[in-house]
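Write out this protein's structure.
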Amino acid sequence: MTADVASLARRFDAIGYLDARTRRRTPARITTLVRRVRATVPDPLAAALAFQRVTEAGPGVDPSVHAEALLSALRWVARLDPLEVYAALRPLDRRLNRLARTAGVTPFAEEARDELRCAFVDAAFQRFADSAPSEVAWEAVMALHVTLAAEGLASGGEHAAEAASAIAAHALDVPNVAVALHHAELAVRWSAALGRHDPDRLRHLYVLASSAHMAGAHDRVLELADDLLTDLDDALGPDDPCAVDLRLTTADSASALGDHARATNLAADAVWTCELELGPEHPLTLGSYGVLARLLRRADRPTEAVAVSRQHFERSRHLLDEAPREVAHAGIGLAAGYLQNAEYEAARTVARETLAWCTPRLGPDDELTETLRRILGDHA
């Protein structure tokens, strides 16, 4: 073993690219060290290095020179501040050109260098994401990763798709519909290589369907749901929260387009599945009851809507201290059903009871208690 090998091993270890075996016992040859270092490099960067044929010293090149070039390139990944990535791209290109020369890849085509650069940028962003950064920094970095991918400076692949989908999901919570829909479309496009049944791919499609629904693009929701409902059921199970929510989202879009039969059938499927698999008082079950009742009212089936809402109300009120908002929603839904059925006294009774239960828990200024007061005031 030479001192050069030991020194290289320590420096690779300092940036996190050394396996436990080599850390315990440094190999005698630099080529062995480099081979073990490559084994610690995560895909797709490792695949990009192999594809561009820069993983070994070229003919007549001292292996230590190539090892130093590889160390320099990987150090860029380990030490990059993602928010300074634009300023760091030119130094990265110099390191990649040096790595190619030491591997005997000359001339190093610009297209090949650009593809390798994307892989290094992706690796740096993924390393940052894995380091559990603060929420504010994470959001800024994910947004930047998406921008770089759109500009061709990072791969529009799996990691960029994750970033775009995360931004879309966060935008749904804000809500910012345009941002959500744009980034969800990017995530689906960039994850196409994962295959139809890949769980990450399915999650990206689910976020896209949710974004399209919030945007009022109901035709797009139904188009996505044709295959996605089956795929989610097969991959995750029909009682998975994403599968349940997609079924209810699709039901609402079908109702918005006037297909009330399909809408109520989908919502009823969600209720049946949740009650069977999760139990009658599970939040997903109760939420499904609420959606089914609302869609029945929209379909002008008030008697059935009241029956469903009554079940929702009776089951949710046992959870008054745990989930007062669910109780308020159930009471409002039942009162609405009674009003549509011209049962005004029953509507007032339910609204009055629900208001008395929920006001101490939600406060008098909550939007749900205000809705209950409005029902009482409008139909006094």
